[in-house]
Specification:
- The protein is mainly alpha-helical.
- It has two domains: about 40 residues, no CATH class; about 90 residues, 2-Layer Sandwich (formyl-coa transferase, domain 3), CATH 3.30.1540.10.
- Helices cover about 50% and strands about 10% of the residues.
- Strands 1-2-3 form a three-stranded antiparallel β-sheet.
């Protein structure tokens, strides 16, 4: 059962498939994250609920609410992102999602997962290592 059959599956079955991909990630290099990131790279649904690869090849999944964007930007050492007119509000972030993903890709690629865990936990940012 793969993602190509999702349209014929119900919500529970889709959740099980997603869970299987996520659970297999330590074995296969996080195929779920890589697939999700690559297929949505040009225009993801939300750059703040998206997987990002760290410098050591590990993946983390962000879940940042729009109201928390400025605090998130400060936590990752990029407070200027919340001042950027393209990203100043939720509508701008969605309209410029590819540009924001490119910014965040570059940021997360600079450090290891251990570094980002410490930074994100310290900033009280919701995320998961996948």
């Amino acid at each position: 059962m793969g993602f190509s059959r999702q349209n014929s599956m119900g919500a529970i079955e889709q959740s099980i498939v997603h869970l299987a991909y996520m659970e297999s990630s330590p074995v296969n290099g996080c195929t779920f994250c890589i697939d999700m990131h690559l297929t949505q790279a040009t225009r993801p649904q939300s750059p703040l609920a998206n997987p990002y690869c760290t410098a050591d090849g590990r993946w983390l999944m962000l879940v940042v609410q729009p109201k928390d964007f400025a605090a998130f930007a400060r936590a990752i050492g990029r407070p200027c992102l919340s001042d950027d007119p393209r990203f100043a509000d939720a509508t701008g972030r969605m309209g410029n999602s590819a540009a924001l993903v490119a910014e965040l890709d570059a940021v997360f690629a600079t450090q290891s997962i251990a570094h980002w865990k410490q930074v994100l936990e310290g900033g009280r940012v919701i995320f998961s290592v996948v």
